């Protein structure tokens, strides 16, 4: 199921925070900037990827913060940034499949400290989406929620 929550994703009780990123490692705006400030390891893991921007599309990077514990996923579901729509509707699902594959195969030591998985996304997925595009991105998340039998929470603020 997909649930909408009117609180802040970064102060939530989610054990997984996922967001869509561009392929140029630009975490200077929006939720990416907030994630970078609160969880700098997410930016660090992004910068360690051996891919060119063209190769990142549909991939992901992630960071595990053991003190909370929380996993931050950078999903490369948009190639560029700036004006207009950039969410790639084939790359975004590819990143989601990879994220769920990782979540299904977490090491036992991680499962011990974080037995329940609560997945949070920002409500606004991608950049400057029209209402139709936002609905489409939410439908993709709804599909993956059912496919992997995991609730997904969308945070509005």
Characterise this structure.
The protein is α/β, with parallel strands linked by helices. About 40% of the residues lie in helices and about 20% in strands. It has helices at about 30-40, 40-45, 55, 90-105, 110-115, 130-150, and strands at about 1-5, 15-20, 60-65, 70-75, 120, 150-155. It is globular, with a radius of gyration of 14 Å. This is Macro domain-containing protein.
Overall spatial form: globular
CATH fold-level assignment? Leucine Aminopeptidase, subunit E, domain 1
Instruction: Using the CA coordinates, give the radius of gyration.
Output: 14 Å
* Percent of residues in β-strands: 15-25%
Tell me the count of domains.
1
Strand order of the largest sheet: 1-6-5-2-4-3
What is the average per-residue confidence, as pLDDT, rounded to a whole number? 87
Order of helices and strands: EEHHHEEHHEHE
Q: Determine the N-to-C terminus distance.
A: 20 Å
Number of strands: 6
Number of helices: 6
Helix content: 25-40%
Provide a brief overview of the structure.
InterPro entries: Macro_dom-like. The protein has 157 residues and is α/β, with parallel strands linked by helices. The protein has 6 helices and 6 strands, in the order ββαααββααβαβ.
Provide the fold topology:
Blueprint: E1 2-5, E2 16-21, H1 30-38, H2 40-47, H3 53-56, E3 60-65, E4 70-76, H4 91-104, H5 108-113, E5 119-122, H6 131-148, E6 152-155
Parallel strand pairs: 1-6, 2-4, 2-5, 5-6
Antiparallel strand pairs: 3-4
Helix pairs in contact: 1-2, 4-6
Structural key phrases:
6 helices; alpha/beta; 6-stranded mixed β-sheet; Leucine Aminopeptidase, subunit E, domain 1; single chain; 157 residues; 6 strands
């Amino acid at each position: 199921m997909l649930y909408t929550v009117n609180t802040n994703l970064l102060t939530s009780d989610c054990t997984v925070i996922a967001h869509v990123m561009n392929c140029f490692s630009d975490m200077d705006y929006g939720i990416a900037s907030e994630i970078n400030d609160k969880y700098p390891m997410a930016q660090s893991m992004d910068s360690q990827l051996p891919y060119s921007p063209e190769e990142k599309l549909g991939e992901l990077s992630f960071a595990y913060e053991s003190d909370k514990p929380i996993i931050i996923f950078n999903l490369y579901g948009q190639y560029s940034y700036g004006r207009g729509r950039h969410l790639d509707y084939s790359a975004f699902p590819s990143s989601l499949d990879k994220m769920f594959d990782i979540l299904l195969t977490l090491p036992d030591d991680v499962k011990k400290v974080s037995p329940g998985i609560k997945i949070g996304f920002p409500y606004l997925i991608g950049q400057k989406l029209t209402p139709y595009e936002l609905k489409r991105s939410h439908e993709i998340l709804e599909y993956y929620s059912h496919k992997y039998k995991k609730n997904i929470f969308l945070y509005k603020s």
